[in-house]
Amino acid sequence: MEIEASAPIKIAPLIIDHLSGELRGRLFTVLSGRAVQAACDVDLAAWNEFAACWNNLPQDKYMGDNGSYRFRRYGAFELDAADGVLQQMPHGPYVQPSYINKLNGDIARHFEPLEPHFVDNPFLSGLLLSLAQVFEQVDGRSGKWDIRLHPYRIRASSHTPGNPTPEGLHRDGVDYIVTMMVRRHNVAGGETYITDVAGKLMCRYTLTDPMDLMLADDARTMHGVTKVLPVEERREAFRDVLVIAYTRTS
Predict the structure, then answer these.
(1) Which pLDDT does position 10 carry in this prediction?
(2) What distance in Å separates the CA atoms of residue 18 and residue 28, rounded to the nearest whole number?
């Protein structure tokens, strides 16, 4: 299914220059949600409808640590950046090799697909197209991309901390990895840390606000996220993020 390219979010050229320059020089970059909203034409109604999709994520039944705290869906897209055509791929299982994912590797994980109103939301297409522009500027060439989307909700309770990266410090086996904060509700923790391939710390940063973005060169860095706990024990607590993986195919 081809996705409409026109969208209410288009990252401004100056921001694309900033993100690509930092990614090229430091191998990672962070952009606050406030900066995204200030620099881009974000339709807040579309964003709110998009963020509401996290309220209907099924539980992840493939947790190698037997945890019941993670909820997710999964979908794949193909983007031809030369003409801006974004195509949703037929739904299938998600597989990672065990050398990349030591917890859940070499398993065909059959997650529920992305909902139509998630896919059709104009915020999403604008985000995916704009991020591709950043990565193409880093690489200095245009081409085709395989894009994998992972909306996650990590729940936490006083008895069971939520673990955003149960596999620990890792890479995803792709070219570029993106994490976008959607919502933090009554949680503490969840600090993202990025290292080089040898494990030397390069960055520690906590995504806190809606639309906060972190981009990293996945081939030359590793990343992880600390556990989350409820601030108020008797209230629901969760961390919602969208993880997007870009792999160049041409």
Answers:
(1) 65
(2) 12
Closest CA to 162 of 60, 31, 242: 60
Structure tokens at 217: 């060169």
Q: Which long-range contacts (CB under 8 A, 24 or more apart) does 104-109 make?
A: 104/62, 104/63, 104/64, 104/167, 107/62, 109/62, 109/74
Rg, the chain, Cα only:
17
Is residue 137 within 8 Å of 213, Cβ to Cβ? Answer: no
Within 10 angstroms of residue 218's Cβ, the number of other Cβ atoms is 22
- Which residues fall within 8 angstroms of residue 67, CB to CB, at 6 or more apart? 160, 163, 166
Q: What is the pLDDT of residues 55-67, one digit of tens each?
A: 999 999 999 899 9
Instruction: Name residue, tokens 């990343």.
Output: 223
Using CA atoms, how far apart are residues 103 and 30, in angstroms rounded to an integer?
27
Is residue 87 within 8 A of residue 3, CB to CB? The reply is yes
H helical segments located in the chain: 13-26, 33-39, 44-51, 116-119, 122-139
